[in-house]
């Protein structure tokens, strides 16, 4: 019995795919557009299967803001009193920074619109009418921006009083990522694929999702085989057969677990769960709460 549980647990852990795609961007640069155009139709499927998309925006530093006023005065091209800055000839840096926040919130709140919106923005909106132009995308698609605006608002530290010296958690994250390049770049986990053609990128990505049998990847296999003189037309169907076989195995394991549980394996399962959740681990994660609790009890 134990043997089956161990295998089943191992399988469940294997099924969890954790892949990070990190895109570095610079506001003045539009070289991200081709990749975005290609990837926009594939993103949703990968996301549903465990892809984490991280954006890193290149922010400009204001060294003197710290020495002059310790980030306590407003700066035209900065937020956070100079902690985060942007610059362009046609709009203020503050407007650009607010747009970057808006884009991050689109990704967080309406991820299915992130690529379409940023493509639209890159094509249409990098000019003096930036804010109105941005709104048009949402008007055209009948989408309310309220949840996005709320996300932007909540990203500012509510304790600071003056609007443009408030610290901001999204911009702090960008700052920590230290993306200092002025061109777009693309990392799949720690692998730099910035210079790879889209087909190659998709292949690499699909390798990480090889057990998920994705539609996006089926297409890439087709493209690959047709360019390889059509002699390998069997590969896509073989892959599908493998995957359905796997699913049958998973189903059988699930059945076995259900049967074992019904036949008194319940206590065993409980033991295993407690065994893997080791006591010291929970102490490490909530030491403060535990400490507070003890102090309160002592006081009483
Ligand atoms: C993905 O990123 C998260 C958080 O940054 C990290 O915990 C995780 O280990 C990363 N996964 C991989 C496969 O690199
Ligand atoms: C990527 O997009 C370009 C146009 O933006 C297109 O010509 C090219 O075929 C696309 N590549 C793939 C693999 O879809
Ligand atoms: C994004 O744009 C593509 C192509 O224009 C379209 O097919 C798709 O439905 C759009 N996605 C959303 C969420 O609007
Ligand atoms: C948006 O709503 C208006 C009226 O409410 C409708 O005429 C229009 O077709 C809608 N557009 C989309 C893209 O759904
Ligand atoms: C990126 O730029 C910031 C500020 O300009 C600097 O503090 C940091 O060291 C740079 N990081 C790297 C990796 O170059
Ligand atoms: C896919 O599944 C096979 C067997 O089920 C396993 O050996 C392999 O490591 C899995 N690949 C990935 C990328 O998880």
TrEMBL record:
The keyword Membrane applies. It holds the Pfam family VSR_TRX. Its main location: membrane. One of its GO terms (cellular component) is membrane. It comes from the Eukaryota. It is a single-pass membrane protein; Single-pass type I membrane protein. InterPro entries: VSR_TRX. It is found in: Endomembrane system; Membrane. Keywords: Glycoprotein, Membrane, Repeat, Signal, Transmembrane, Transmembrane helix. Residues 31-180 form the Vacuolar sorting receptor thioredoxin-like domain. The chain crosses the membrane at residues 248-269. This is Vacuolar sorting receptor thioredoxin-like domain-containing protein.
């Amino acid at each position: 019995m134990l043997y089956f549980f161990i295998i089943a647990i191992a399988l469940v852990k294997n099924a969890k795919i954790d892949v990070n795609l990190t895109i570095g961007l610079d506001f003045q640069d539009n070289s991200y557009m081709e990749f975005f155009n290609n990837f926009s139709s594939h993103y949703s499927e990968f996301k549903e299967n465990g892809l984490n998309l991280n954006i890193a925006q290149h922010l400009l530093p204001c060294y003197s803001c710290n020495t002059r006023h310790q980030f306590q005065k407003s700066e035209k091209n900065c937020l956070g009193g100079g902690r985060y800055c942007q610059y362009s000839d046609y709009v203020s840096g503050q407007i650009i920074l607010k747009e970057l926040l808006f884009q991050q919130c689109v990704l967080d709140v309406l991820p299915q619109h992130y690529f379409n919106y940023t493509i639209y923005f890159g094509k249409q909106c990098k000019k003096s009418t930036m804010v109105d132009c941005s709104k048009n995308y949402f008007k055209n698609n009948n989408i309310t921006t309220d949840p996005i605006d709320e996300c932007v608002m909540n990203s500012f530290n509510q304790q600071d009083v003056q609007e443009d010296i408030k610290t901001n958690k999204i911009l702090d994250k960008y700052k920590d990522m230290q993306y200092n390049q002025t061109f777009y770049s693309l990392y799949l986990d720690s692998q730099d694929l910035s210079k790879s053609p889209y087909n190659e990128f998709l292949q690499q990505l699909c390798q990480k999702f090889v057990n998920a049998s994705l539609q996006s990847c089926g297409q890439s296999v087709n493209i690959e085989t047709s360019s390889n003189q059509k002699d390998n037309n069997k590969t896509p169907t073989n892959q599908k057969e493998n995957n359905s076989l796997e699913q049958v195995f998973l189903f059988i394991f699930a059945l076995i677990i259900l049967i074992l549980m019904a036949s008194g394996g319940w206590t065993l399962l409980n033991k295993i769960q407690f065994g893997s959740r080791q006591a010291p681990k929970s102490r490490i994660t909530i030491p403060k709460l535990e400490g507070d609790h003890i102090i309160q009890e002592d006081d009483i």
